[in-house]
Amino acid sequence: MRHSRYFVALVLIGVMLGPVFYIIIGGFRTNSQITVDPAGLPDPWVIGNYTDVLTGDVFWRQVGNSTIVAVATTLGVVALGVMASYVLARYRFKGRAAMYALFAAGLMFPATVAITPLYILIKNLGLVNTLPGVILPQIAFGLPTTVIILVPFLRAIPRELEEAAAIDRCSRLGFFWRMVLPLSVPGLITVGILAFVNSWNSYLLPLFILNDQDGFTLPLGVQAFSSQYSVDTAKVLAFTSLSMIPALVFFSLFERRIVGGLTGAVKG
Amino acid sequence: MTVTEVRTGGGVRTPPPVRPRRRGIGWAQRLEIVALSGPAILVFIGFVIVPVAMAAYYGFYRWKGFGPPTDFVGLDNYVTILQDPAFHEALIHNGQIVVLSLIIQGPIAVGLALLLNQRMRGRSLIRVLIFVPYVIAEVIAGTAWALLLQSDGAVNGVLRSVGLDGLAQDWLSNPDLAIWTLMMILTWKYIGFAVILFLAGMQNIPEELSEAAAMDGATYWQTQWRITLPLLGPTIRIWAFLSIIGALQLFDLVYIIWGQYVASTAGTSTMATYMVTEGRNAANYGYGNAVAVVLFTISMIIALVYQRFVLRRDTEGHA
Asked: How far apart are the C-alpha atoms of B186 and A21, rounded to whole Å?
């Protein structure tokens, strides 16, 4: 019983990480090694594939684009989301229920459904092939989850605090700025991480909006690279594993928050 | 809130000190509401609601995507969808993916969560590691699996090298097998999410319950079956909801693997990939948008029915 538990865990890790290790290790092989023995270990290990990718500017440009898009999306989602959530959580006005329902319904609208009109809209705004053309819709599609997570969070801030602030002649906006924002930092980090990871991995929207190789984000870059070098499997593996690293580093830094955020999202 | 207001209003004759502040709701507060929520609402309506509404509008036109749509065909696109065998095939695939996701991923994830909920060495590291596939981008996961599963790829290579030549398959391009290959990849990618959810759900179950059951002589499995699983019900039902919606809208992995490496989605097409191949690649924008509307309507109906009949008992307790 005791040993079987560890055995299952080991098999599990092997299955989950096997493909990941295959791409990383595969990048250290040559194409002829891969052709002769598709499942073998590198013999000898070559680092040429990795250094080629790292010394070229394509990879770094795409890392830059992805970073700009993800950071801007995250900032936008968090800023707009917390302001709207504050209104939904702490103000009483006609139409509040309707406003909440509007955002909640947004959970059901996948970007897939709206992708053609979105493309046309972005084209009419003159934003095709620009990073803002990806950022703005991503902020919009990130808002429903953000609002759903943040509203209960902001509602939980005790009313006494608000009253004490009012007695100290602190306006409602002052209260928002000085009390609500600092108190809700954990919630903001959670929604921020969700927005960042979603944006970093996002594929469909950039696929429609970015047609020019110079503007490609990493996911588009991986796809373009793998069709351009389809015969050079080893190089594709190197490029793919390098583009995996930022997300993995980010994930290992914020793993607790991501897991906590997901469970919080589902409970809310 | 209302209760306290009524009480102060009724009990005391002189207006309570809260009153002047309440009267201030007028202009200043209204301005705050607009200033704070305005940007979010504008962006949300502009880039979510309007495009969805436009999709519904374009669905009534035969339209190639150039200039304003002029060729109004009413419900023709929808009539065509009803008779379109390629759409039916995609719809059936979505149905298969929904059902298979639930019956494959659900039990495996519950089992793994039970395992990882026990005291064992390296437990937190294992939890992180099984979550890695979920964090990796779909494009990267798709590229990796496409290379692994090619007919001369690593999976077949391993099978042949251990003498199981018979098991080596055309994993991706055999249309009878492709849906199972896809299910395997989906399970790999998304099982970590389910396990993490279930573990969080199990953490909310008070330990006294299983301790009491153990005192009464219940075995480990009896305790899990009679206590943990029933109390995990709400978490499982929410996971199932997310899984169903995700399966209905599945696009990325299919489009990446079967669009790029196999050059045909035959056997794995979904409503979303069909929509994109029709709308974008075949320039039938009007028809593609009608497919989008059907996809949206199906998801919405299933979501509403599910919330009405399955999730209701979970939310009733809280309300």
From this structure: 18
> Could you give the CA distance from residue A116 to residue A110 in angstroms, rounded to a whole number?
12
- Which residue blocks in chain A are alpha helix, DSSP H? 2-26, 31-36, 48-55, 57-90, 96-106, 111-124, 131-155, 159-167, 172-175, 181-183, 185-201, 204-209, 218-228, 233-267
Rounded mean pLDDT of B92-97?
Answer: 95
Which residues are paired to B61 by β-bridges?
B72
Q: Which two tokens stand for residue A85?
A: 């959530």
pLDDT at B123: 79
Out of B43, B137, B193, name the one closest to residue A140 (CB). B43
Q: How far apart are CA B96 and CA B90, in angstroms?
A: 10
B8, B23, B36: best to mutate for the A interface, most A CBs within 10 A: B36
Pick the more confident residue, A102 or B206.
A102
Query: Would you call A118 and B295 a contact, using CB atoms and an 8 Å cutoff?
Result: no
Cross-chain residue pair A203–B139, CB shorter than 8 Å: yes
Which tokens hold the place of A88? Answer: 């939904």
Joined together, the tokens standing for residue B236 give: 């499982």
For tokens 């039916």, the residue is B88
CA distance A120 to A247: 31
Name the pTM for this structure. Answer: 0.84
